Predict the structure.
Amino acid sequence: MFLHTSRLQFEAKPDRPDAHYARKLQELIGGAYGEMTVTMVARLLDNAPSEVTAQAVAGDPVVAAVIGGMDPQQAIVSGGGPTLSDSNGVPWNGRYIVASGNLMADFRANVAAEAQGRLQTARLYNMTDDTGVRDMLKFNLARDTAHQNMWLAAIEELQEDGLEGPISPSALFDEEHAEHAGTIWHNSDGPAGAEGGWASGTAPDGVHEFSYVMKPEPLGGKGSTPKPDPLLYATSPANLGLIEKAIRKLT
């Protein structure tokens, strides 16, 4: 069950229509880190109302801007309202949602999503001088701050309660190749990689030790592939003779 109200959590009052900016705002509605994504994540985690109302807030300036002439889809399909798509008109889809069932993994994904959403909101804030739109974005920035802190606090609580450790999942440590669990391979130019906190010392999980391999060597031999099924007609040395026969027939 979800609380539904026609009242806005924050009422946006744009100064004037701005069709170009309205399209940019679509990213905050139907983009990978937009309100539709965090709304669905929140519903899966029983925290829907704040995200649903934030989505309604984000829609208002788009509606106002569309009146000035905007994306034909918004006029023809949605009757002047926002669409569940990003700023390029690509429809929102459920693949943006992370809901694995492992709370540590999911909470970290939520922190990243809120960070990306706040980053995009901050960029949009600097792309307009409309006081009404900026006022709305100030509210959205504050809510993204609150949500990031909420998920970060939840991560700490998971660890304090012993439900999850810093590595997700907290399992199979005895089965993994432990000799590779702390090694960082140098795969870039210059020596700076070895100077980072990930290059030596105790890892954040408090169990593993970091070590930096300056000249890593491949662990396996030359790669190979199994013989393809001939009925799939994949090009392969295994059917090279057949290809040559076909070429001779054509010439």
Q: What stands out?
A: Confidence is low (pLDDT under 50) at residues 48-60, 62-69.
